[in-house]
Fold:
Amino acid sequence: MKICQRYLGDPGYQQGIGQELGISQTMVSQTVDRVVNSIVAQSNERIKFTTTNHELMEAKQIWQSMYKFPTAIGVIDCTHIGILKPNRHGDEYINRKGKPTLIVQPTCDTREMFTSGDVS
Structure:
């Protein structure tokens, strides 16, 4: 997964990423292919977008009534995932706390807020 995150975070030459991570270009290619295909295979089940005016209005109403967040239909947040510092360009991955990480930006709508059990 970290190989794929590295590639998708800054797509460049697979060979260069392989050298940076100490693996072959073939391994980079195969890993990216497997991870992306897995995400695509699960996308209809896991990735949902508001598609109708009714859903938009319902989402806005929920965000307003529960969080006093008018016109919102979803939220986005960021988190850092720890990685081993790459040999090449490793300083580009150092976060503000001095640790090597990749940044991930998950999104969430009201359906996820109520089904995940994490409503805080």
The first strand starts at residue 75 and ends at 76.
